[in-house]
Amino acid sequence: MQTRRIGDVEVSAIGLGGMPMSIEGRPDEARSLATLHAALDAGVTLIDTADAYHRDADEVGHNETLIAKALASHDRGADVLVATKGGHLRPGDGSWTLDGSPKHLKEACEASLRRLGVEAIGLYQFHRPDPRVPYADSVAAVRELLDEGKIRLAGISNANPEQIRQAQDILGGRLVSVQNQFSPAFRSSEPELSLCDELGIAFLPWSPLGGISRARELGSAYAPFARVAEAHGVSPQRVCLAWMLAKSPVVVPIPGASRPESIRDSVAAADLELTAGEIAALDAV
Predict the structure, then answer these.
(1) CB neighbourhood size of 128 (10 A)
(2) What is the dihedral of CA 126, 129, 134, 140, to 10 degrees?
(3) 276-283 and 223-232 helices cross at what angle (nearest 10)?
(4) In sequence order, which ranges of 171-275 are alpha helices (DSSP H)?
């Protein structure tokens, strides 16, 4: 497995997004654990989760608990950097709400610590800006968690360039990651990716294949990805992740998966070399 860096931690070039294993349409626990173990077997050392990755109101942190169980039952579990997030909530009716207050973020971090069964969270990210709370106040709460040793690394998610610079300043140069949506269908995070490249901050594209419902349609929706995939004898999804890796050494995609075969295919993208012409054709989509 090729590797990249998040702060001072070396991680697999392809991570695993845990959300599909805990929200609507999720598989049974046995298949989810098999998927997580397949990722570890393939060399994945970065798993992304959040306390809001759950379906019902009474199961907050479902995904964190699932990941903790998978890591505890695998001999490579201790090698994994778990990235979780706080500040986004799911009331249980299918909607998403926000709470970026320092009080909530600190309480959410404590709860995530308990579910993950660790003394310090590997990477904790402020999930999404809350318009009711000054952004500086939310990030300052993350800084306090970092200073207190509750988290080892600090990041932000769904941020714009101004917020990235602001967070970097508030954290005293210790911002290590930005997790934004980015895929062939969602290119508006290009400025954030470029800024992360400039600052040496890891950029973690979420929904890199277009989301749970559209990932399988990537090749049919974007012909250049299908053509490159056919030329290499691989899936369009693998081509997509290889294209992202080629954009910058700070990019670490975190494709979601709920089947072992899906994450195995994604992991193989780290070893797929695209030509300059192919990259240019995919950039032009």
Answers:
(1) 22
(2) 10
(3) 160
(4) 190-199, 218-221, 223-232, 236-247, 260-267
Distance CA 274, CA 263 (A): 20
Q: Which residue has the tokens 């049919």?
A: 220
Q: What type of residue sits at position 90?
A: R
What residues have CB less than 8 Å from 275, skipping those under 6 apart? Answer: none
CB of 105 within 8 A of CB of 135?
Answer: no
Which structure tokens are listed for 198?
């400039």
Global pTM reads: 0.96
Quick: pLDDT tens for 41-82. Answer: 999 999 999 999 999 999 999 999 999 999 999 999 999 999
What is residue 192's three-state secondary structure? helix
3-state class (DSSP) for residue 173: coil
- Catalytic residue numbers read 53
Q: Reduced to 3 states, what is the DSSP secondary structure of residue 196?
A: helix
